[in-house]
Amino acid sequence: MMIKKLFTYSQAIFCMALALSFNACTDEVDRDPSPVQTEGVQAYFYQDAQTSFDLIPDDAQVVQVTIGRNSTGAESVQLTGDNDIFTFPSTVDFQEGETSKTIDVAFDIPVGESASLTLSIAEGDTYIYAPSSTTITIARNYKYNSIGVGMIESSFYGGAGNATFQKAEGAEWYKVVAPYENGYDIILKLQEDGSTVVVDRQAAASDYGGYGTLYVEGQGTLENGVVTLTLEFTVSAGSFGPFDETFIFPGE
User: Are strands 133-140 and 86-87 parallel, antiparallel or unpaired?
Assistant: First the structure.
């Protein structure tokens, strides 16, 4: 059960300060008609395509990316990428009449790690009104098994609640299921010393105060089944500062 959200006075002041920092204005501008592109392959990546992939260890290390185009002849598109651990065709061949082509992007990412690749269409092959590049992110996640229901005490949200705890197979990583919002789990990484716990930067909630995704990051210690953390809570506009958060493992 996720902790009930509560705005504290200081957090409300922070959000008000952010709001005052934004100014909106509109100007009437005479604009020329947009040009019509009639030459070239006019290839592009789809704006709404999936770009984030979460895989478990048993999944094949390959994903698919689709390229569209506006032309109709038999033509080729040149692709480049910025990460050598990914492999993909550098040339994509369209048959006459084909308006889209799906390619395989393969990789070799260790379990528990993630990597990103930005694919770009060669400048002479692009369509000016659609994305000419796309960035995909691959996360190879451990399998997690439930170890029971524990508790969370949050100074940031000003409350407490229960949450399911899970443990990774093959690693001292623990997942706290939706401590702050459904769909947003927190990963606790126990270090080799057996007491230090690290929380890498990760999304904790879809929105806070109207300023978009809320992120947490920090570290703490594990003692007698209780993890005491100092976490910094941030949104894109800035930081709320560090807060003490307590995660109590099942049975403690």
Answer: unpaired
Phi and psi torsions of 15, nearest 5°: -65, -35
Exposed (0-12), middle (13-18) or buried (19+): which is 63, by Cβ within 10 Å? Answer: buried
- % of the chain surpassing 90 pLDDT: 81
User: Which residues pair with residue 80 across a beta bridge?
Assistant: 120
Distance CA 68, CA 207 (A): 33
H or E segment and range at residue 233: strand 226-235
Taken in order 146, 150, 154, 157, the sign of the CA dihedral is positive
Question: Exposed e or buried b for every residue in 97-106, given b needs 16+ CB within 10 A?
Answer: eeeebeeebe
Nearest 5°: phi and psi at 32?
A: -75, 150
Q: How many residues can be counted in the chain?
A: 252
What string of DSSP letters covers 135-153?
A: EEEEEEPPPEEEEEEEEEE
pLDDT at 13 over 90: no
Q: What is the DSSP letter of 95?
A: P
Q: What is the pLDDT of residues 28-40, one digit of tens each?
A: 556 655 566 656 6
| Whole-angstrom distance, CA of residue 249 vs CA of residue 152 | 9
